[in-house]
Specification:
By secondary structure, the chain is mainly alpha-helical. It has seven helices and three strands, in the order H-H-E-E-E-H-H-H-H-H. A hairpin with a 4-residue loop joins strand 2 and strand 3. The radius of gyration is 21 Å and the shape is elongated. The structure holds zinc ion. The site of zinc ion (ZN) has 4 residues, from helix 4 and helix 6. Zinc ion binds next to helix 4 and helix 6.
Length: 235
């Protein structure tokens, strides 16, 4: 039997924390999609594609060992520090929209972070393996602890989940910093004018908000685990 004491006609009130987190994530993702949809339609005055933008921005930053390559999918853009590649999706690589230019410059922002040894990026890369283990094993261990009443497993589950939350927390400065580098470089290279830059800023801010929402949802999940473990420990 499901034993925890919060059951009231079978409803676990801590589900509310999950629902709030889910709604935050949905709202952030809806906001991002609508902002992208708007700025995908606005062509930049320079007429540069995402790929050309990335190449110019990298050159201006003095980076010569990073490749710009196309990848499949939508919103799959990223910088890969292992292969030193700025990977741009179909909507970005060959497009000249403000959204494409903004995203391309953002990924170059990560390449610059890598080149200058930006500490939060290094820290984030260092904890990726631990965070992956944490997010994979935390729930199974926690559930086993709950079902078989093994308290140490509850604690291990919570600690592992905290590592995944920590990863998301460190992601925030990395993402915001990449965007601010991007906007600064787009301005200083003259790729975007002042008004265009404001549009690119909206795109990048909307993208960053999805990371904030994901973190908030994870913190709520962590809180839920702590409440469930606390309820079990009192039994
Ligand atoms: Zn990023």
């Amino acid at each position: 039997m499901y034993g925890y004491r919060y059951g009231f006609f079978g409803f676990d009130p801590t589900y509310l924390l999950l629902i709030i987190g889910m709604l935050l994530s949905l709202a952030a993702s809806a906001k991002m999609k609508s902002t992208f949809a708007t700025y995908k339609k606005i062509r930049s005055a320079s007429g540069l594609t995402g790929a050309e933008t990335a190449q110019r921005v990298l050159r201006a930053a003095g980076i010569t060992d990073v490749q710009v390559v196309p990848i499949s999918g939508s919103l799959t853009d990223h910088y890969d520090p292992r292969t030193k590649k700025v990977c741009l999706s179909e909507d970005v690589y060959n497009r000249t929209s403000l959204a494409a230019v903004g995203v391309a410059a953002h990924e170059c922002g990560h390449a610059v972070q890598h080149a200058v040894n930006y500490a939060p990026l290094n820290l984030r890369s260092a904890i990726v393996p631990v965070a992956n283990i944490g997010s994979t094993l935390s729930w199974p261990l926690f559930l086993a602890g709950l079902i078989f009443s093994i308290r140490p497993l509850l604690t291990v589950g919570i600690v592992l989940f905290s590592l995944a939350v920590l990863f998301q927390l460190i992601t925030l400065p990395v993402e915001f910093n990449a965007s601010s580098r991007a906007l600064q470089m787009l301005g200083s290279t003259g790729i975007l004018g002042v008004e265009e830059n404001a549009g690119a800023r909206k795109v990048l801010t909307a993208a960053a908000l999805t990371y904030v929402a994901a973190l908030a949802a994870s913190i709520l999940q962590l809180l839920r685990l702590i409440i469930l473990a606390g309820g079990r420990n009192r039994d």
